[in-house]
Structures are given as structure tokens and as C-alpha cells.
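Subject line: Sequence and fold of a protein, written as C-alpha cells
Body of memo: The sequence and its C-alpha cells, given next.
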Amino acid sequence: MLAGQPAPPPNKPVVPPLGNSSPEQARVLVQHAADYLQRFGRELAIIEFNRPRSVFNSVSEFNPNGDLYVVMFWANRGGVQLAHGRHPQMAGKDMSGVRNIEGIFVNKEIIKACNTAEGNGWVAFKWPNPASQQFAPRRVYAQKVDEYCIAAGVFVD
């Protein structure tokens, strides 16, 4: 939370604003998350990235619109998800079989982007947009940090 902003009531779920951030803001958020992982290590990063009210997953200086969230996978161990900023219950689960409406294995594609020679990249696919309840174009930026893959994405027109 930014200084001076009230925290949400403790037992109320966090309901994020929908669809205001740009692809560049997603890329910058991933860079901040990568810096956090490098500075504080895997254990603390997983805890922080799995907290829906974390600075990475709610309104903050890193996430001014509050509609972004961080996901983290092992980069070379299939599709095991280590963190999900909106759905922390996914942590520890193999998410490699998740497909979109077009049959694209989206998490495999995200991990593939991390494992390019550049160690980062963009992935585009259709995904259910919570605001419209329709499948919409989504762009996800992914970056490899050591043996991990960190990503965040936005819906685009």
C-alpha cells in the first residue's frame, strides 16, 4: 500500500481494478519482481509474490493501477508454479496443462519465453477477461532470473 491509503478490511477479498495498465507497466513490474528475487532470495520472494495485498499484486508504486500481479514458475522443471499473485492456492501445482480457448498451453509458452537466449520475452494469447467475461487478447512479459521465470500480463485491444 502507498503511504496514506487505508488497507482493505482484513477478511474482505481483494478485488482488483480491471484493465488499466500498459504492457510497459507489466514489464517494469516484472523487473521489480526480478530485483526483489535477486535481493531477498526465493523463499521470501515466493511469500511476497503469493500475497494478494503485496506491492506487486495491489495498488502500489510498482503497480499504480492495481490490476497487475506476478506469477513465478521454475524455468526448467516443467510447469510447476511457485507463486500466483491473485490465486496463491496454485503455488506448488503443475500448471503446464493449462490451455486457452485456442488450445495454446499458455504457461508452457511463458516458460519458453524465459528460456530464450535473451532470457525474456512477450507471449500473446486469448484469455478470459474478468471485466468483459469474454476471451480477449492478453500480452504477458516473462523474464528468467536464475532458475526461475517471473511474469505479468495485461489485456490489450
Notes: The domain at 23-155 is CATH 3.30.450.20 (Beta-Lactamase). Residues 23-40 form the longest helix (18 residues).
